[in-house]
Write a structure and sequence with these properties.
By secondary structure, the chain is mainly α. It has helices at 3-21, 77-84, 88-96, 104-123, 127-140, 149-159, 161-164, 175-187, 191-204, 220-234, 238-248, 251-254, 268-282, 286-289, 291-300, 308-316, 319-338, 349-355, and strands spanning 51-52, 210-211. The chain is globular and about 55 Å long. The two termini are 40 Å apart.
């Protein structure tokens, strides 16, 4: 499995978890779009941690510069253009026209555009007709005269990539081109691109795992992976944090770690929900670009959420999952604000004590 397929698989698995648990207990953002918000501080006592998956075989990982930390809440020009674009082919063509001069943020959004439209185009050969059909079906199912219809149509148009990608029909999109763009963005310090590539690499080599010993007996490669995961969380980039959170909340990883004061095993879907809440804490405008909020409005008529927490509590999660996620949210914030990464299972207790 190449790296691009691993990235796509990780995204599909995360989406599958969301859909499968939406009614049973569980319910992405840009680099320079969001700013760090002061997290709540909590107990600073030392806590037990858990285990970290170990690389089952030697592997070579790309060396990336330190990811850029978010400094401002102002969304980047590239992210605003990406959000507003109703024709992603025109958006991509404009970026490609000055490809040699793109910054990391622009390169990331070009890669994201090509990746999303490649996936959409693979679903149906006649993308234009398919997009038109999807829109007709959506409009036909709206209740006549409903005052919410305008909001629901706007949410549908913002979330429906079949329309946004329609002009990519018959276009040749190279998987290697997408991978190269993500790699180049990562080399330019884009935290989201670095997170995608790191998580794809970890998933590709996650065939085995063993505990992190109290004596710090991890291999050099394991320590490198831990450091990079921590470094990405320290950027406060909402999308990078959520990508890391999707990995930490995966069933294979979350069942091996211990978090919080009591050293509990996190419930995967609530843990992922907590990372979504934390990401939105650091990205105040996340509700406007969050696909779950757009789908909730478009397909279920739930358009009244004023924050992601509202959406999560009232639409995405069960009461039990919401309570769990809110607890985990506090633990994650405490880990970030105190840099006690053992709180979320990323360092053994002895290492956390030594660092503090």
């Amino acid at each position: 499995m190449n790296r691009l397929k691993a990235i796509g698989l990780a995204s599909l698995v995360a989406w599958g978890v969301l859909v499968a648990t939406q009614y049973a207990g569980f319910a992405s953002f840009t680099s320079e779009d969001k700013a760090s918000r002061t997290p709540s501080s909590g107990a600073k006592a030392r806590h037990d941690s858990g285990v970290m998956p170990v690389t089952p075989e030697p592997r070579v990982t790309a060396a990336f510069p330190a990811p850029q930390r978010i400094q401002t809440v102002r969304p980047s020009d590239a992210s605003l253009e990406f959000r507003a674009a109703r024709d992603l082919k025109a958006y991509a063509d404009a970026l490609n026209a000055r490809r040699g001069d793109l910054n990391g943020d622009e390169r990331y959004h070009l890669a994201k555009t090509l990746e999303e439209c490649q996936f959409v185009a693979s679903m149906n050969e006649d993308l234009v007709a398919y997009a038109a059909k999807q829109r007709r079906l959506f409009l036909a199912n709206l209740p006549a005269g409903d005052t919410m219809n305008a909001k629901r149509i706007a949410a549908f148009e913002a979330s429906d990539n079949t329309q946004r990608c329609a002009r990519f029909q018959n276009a040749k999109i190279s998987p290697k081109e997408i991978e190269d763009l993500y790699a180049a963005a990562a080399q330019q310090g884009d935290a989201r691109a670095q997170a995608r590539l790191l998580v794809a690499d970890l998933n590709k080599h996650s065939g085995g795992s063993k505990p992190i010993s109290e004596s710090g007996g991890t291999t050099r490669m394991e320590a490198t992976d831990l450091s990079r995961l921590i470094g990405l969380l320290e950027t406060h980039d909402p999308e990078a944090m959520l990508i890391v959170g999707q990995y930490l909340a995966s069933s294979s990883f979350s069942q091996q770690i211990r978090i919080g004061p009591a050293g509990e095993v996190p419930e995967p879907s609530a843990f992922l929900g907590a990372f979504s809440l934390v990401a939105c804490d650091f990205g105040p405008d996340c509700l406007a670009v969050n696909r779950e909020s757009l789908n909730a409005c478009a397909y279920a008529g739930y358009c009244s959420a004023e924050s992601y927490e509202d959406l999560y509590q009232n639409f995405l999660a069960s009461p039990w999952a919401y309570v769990q996620a809110m607890r985990y949210r506090g633990i994650i914030h405490d880990a970030i604000s105190t840099r006690n990464w053992s709180l979320i299972g990323l360092l053994p207790k002895s290492t956390a004590v030594a660092r503090s």
